[in-house]
Specification:
The chain is an alpha/beta fold. Helix content is about 30%, strand content about 25%. Strands 6-7-9-8-10-11-12-13 form an 8-stranded mixed sheet, with helices on both faces. Strand 3 and strand 4 form a beta hairpin. The radius of gyration is 19 Å and the shape is globular.
Length: about 375
């Protein structure tokens, strides 16, 4: 089980936390690494020693991470609810291309974005990150609302940003023109590897909220393809009974869930429930799993489902890391967690043996 302490901001919640500027020693026990972070609670003037349990990483030690999420919950709540029309800024050295693919799985052409790292050359193979959007989002979200382009200066992935509507990234049983799992893993995949110089042995998939669920689900259903899966505030409860009991989730997304999973109810769709999927693959053949979620996530089932899932991964002996951060279901949290997730993905895909020149070796071990 994960060791937790009561959250002083909300006594009904328990949380593992981390803060900026505080060293994080690591302890190896029983084949797992326990990362301990100090949390300073300025409201009560006390300091607590908070352990966060993560899975084995390459039989080594996780790197020191310095990361802050110090914005107030009020600002996070506002950020979660407001839309933006500000166009993203195209970095001079990082190229963003928009292409379309003839998707047989959807019966139409679909646009997607590709971020190419600085100095991209067709004769060099690059690791690829398939980065999925959340509910009501699209292919431009990560570009407009995070520092993705700046981060790709440091982590030279090719990043693929698809548009998948409110599909939950599954093949809808009653809608033949909504086979979004096939779209991501067959149609889009074939088009991208044909157009761009992809190292197909170094693939990662990640996303936020609905896209976080989609990334974890697709990564576990296709473990031969993806070596890393990442979920920020992942909606892991959507394909379980727990999701059905989440009235906040169903109020806003129930119609799309029924279309995606069928009128029989999502609890009957075991093939899309991450908690059940991962057991079909031997632990040492599963992709590395990175999860981060706010301790005050606005959807009641998301935090418990993330905790339950990581408990299951640990018991199974899978490699993973899990972080709970003060915050809500918002772009403030997702933007802040993008760099740690990219750092983890880079280390996994490069088996800890290489690092971009722009990253200090101490931060990329």
């Amino acid at each position: 089980m994960h060791a937790r302490i009561p959250d002083p901001e909300n006594p009904t919640l328990s949380a593992g936390k981390r803060s900026a500027g505080v060293s994080a020693p690591f302890v190896l026990f029983d084949g797992f690494i326990e990362a301990r972070y100090h949390h300073v609670n300025q409201d009560i003037g006390s300091m607590a020693f908070v352990p966060i349990t993560v899975g084995v990483m390459f039989q080594g030690i996780m790197p020191h991470r310095r990361h802050a999420c110090a914005l107030t919950a009020a600002l996070a709540f506002l950020a979660a609810g407001c839309a933006t029309t500000t166009p993203y800024v195209r970095d001079d050295s990082v190229r963003v291309e928009t292409d379309t693919v003839n998707a047989a799985s959807l019966g139409r052409r679909v646009a997607y974005n590709v971020v190419l790292p600085s100095g991209y050359e067709a004769n060099q193979r690059y690791p690829v990150l398939w980065l999925l959007h959340g509910y009501s989002g699209g292919k431009d979200d990560w570009l407009r609302r995070t520092d993705l382009l700046k981060e790709i200066e440091r982590y030279p992935f090719i990043v693929v940003l698809p548009s998948a509507e409110n599909s939950w990234y599954v093949n809808a049983p009653s809608a033949p023109d909504a086979a979004y799992e096939t779209f991501i893993t067959v149609d889009l995949y074939s088009d991208v590897i044909r157009r761009f110089s992809i190292d197909t042995t170094r693939q990662a998939i990640a996303g936020l909220s609905m896209g976080g669920y989609g990334a974890v689900m697709l990564g576990l259903r296709h473990p031969h393809r993806y070596r890393f899966v990442g979920g920020l505030s992942a909606a892991l409860s959507v394909a379980s009974v727990m999701g059905q009991s989440d009235t906040v989730l169903w109020k806003g997304t129930g119609k799309s869930i029924l279309k995606a999973f069928g009128s029989g109810g999502v609890s009957s769709v075991a093939q899309y429930d991450p908690v059940r999927i991962f057991r079909r693959t031997m632990a040492d053949s599963l992709p590395y799993v990175f999860l981060a979620i706010g301790t005050h996530d606005d959807y009641p089932s998301f935090l418990p489902s993330n905790r339950a899932f990581t408990d299951s991964l640990r018991a199974y002996g899978a490699r993973y890391e899990y972080h709970e951060i003060p915050g809500r279901h918002s772009w403030i949290l997702w933007g802040a967690e993008l760099e740690p997730m990219l750092n983890a993905a880079w280390r996994v895909l490069h088996a800890v043996t290489s690092c971009p020149d722009t990253i200090a070796p101490a931060d990329c071990r």
